[in-house]
Amino acid sequence: MKFNRAPLARxxxxxxxxxxxxxxxxxxxxxxxxxIAYIDPLSGxxxxxxxxxxxxxxxxxxxxxxxxxxxxxxxxxxxxxxDSKLSAQESQSALxxxxxxxxxxxxxxxxxxxxxxxxxxxxxxxNQRNPGKxxxxxxxxxxxxxxxxxxxxFWHFQTEANTAMKMKALANYIKKTPDVKKxxxxxxxxxxxxxxxxxxxxxxxxxxxxxxxxxxxLHPIGRVKDFAPYxxxxxxxxxxxxxxxxxxxxxxxxxxxxxxxxxxxxxxxHSAGSVPGTVTAVSQAKTGQLTWVAEWxxxxxxxxxxxxxxxxxxxxxxxxxxxxxIDLTPxxxxxxxxxxxxxxxxxxxxxxxxLSFDSVVGPVRMRAEDHQLLLPxxxxxxxxxxxxxxxxxxxxxxxxxxxxxxxxGNELAQGTDCKMVRP
Length: 423
What we know:
By secondary structure, this protein is an alpha/beta fold. Helices cover 42% and strands 21% of the residues. Strands 7-6-8-9-10-14-15 form a seven-stranded mixed beta sheet, with helices on both faces. α2 (47-66) crosses α11 (324-340), α5 runs parallel beside α6 (191-207) and α11 crosses α12. The relative contact order is 0.12.
């Protein structure tokens, strides 16, 4: 018996075409990925800071993806995680690993300005040597003005108010606070700690020429276990207030030592209140006032967009929401990718320049000349709940945040020494 092979051949060909078409359709259905590398401390004395920042970043990226991702739904964001260990050397290793895994953007800021500056410099060198494989750095928390000043880089974007802007906000507040008379400068011994002290002398001294600066000290970052000797020196100076850039355990241990000594001090800080454990430390010290400045604080009145975001964040993570600027960082990146209509790094960077963004804390703008985000700053003090000014307790305590003053990004904007070199 003879078989007619032609129909069988046609069936086989049709099957192959069907399989190929199905595979092609599945390939089209799979979105591209845009990889973002998170590089910040996830171990050591500031691990709680790094974990907080990671969770905020992760939540925003997952929310962006849940809403379709970027580029019309063709691309999803993917977060890679690396531990900087608060070390420039470890951060360099993390950067190389991120590059090897195909990252196009770095999100960082919690490792300190010196580490982030080294990262930016390394990225700039990589980009110069590897055209077509460039990366950008999105810095949400390291606030050295030099990073958007003399050492500015086209590849670096700062989404937090810098040191000068924050100190200007505090100086404006101190100008109207006559009980601040004698100030001690106590700071961590690294670039930003020294800058916080310098800007304190300069801007607070300008706002209040009558203030006396009665002493100054630097201490190793993350290594002091007992601040009692420092507190004793502050007390001997006769200071009523301390300008300190301390954060993490360096802030909580300072509060503890002053509380143990029964020393009622005022502290002026850039961001310590946003770090978990600080409110608890203030409540346990039972003495002293910590005034700090940020784009928002928990319990802030007239902030419905942040309140809604904070509620959704806690429902998903079980944690308290603290830092809108970290959440807006990947959201601004996504907006720039969409504005550029491309994931190409140079196009995305150009789209970020002068980008206006309707954030949960109000309209913000990335200044093109130096890549400094202009965003509002709220001066606030950790204080007992009184049911009137402070209505919300935090970290399971009866302490929350009192709004003292609010300034727009434009009010705090400084001039810049940046001489931007663009590719």
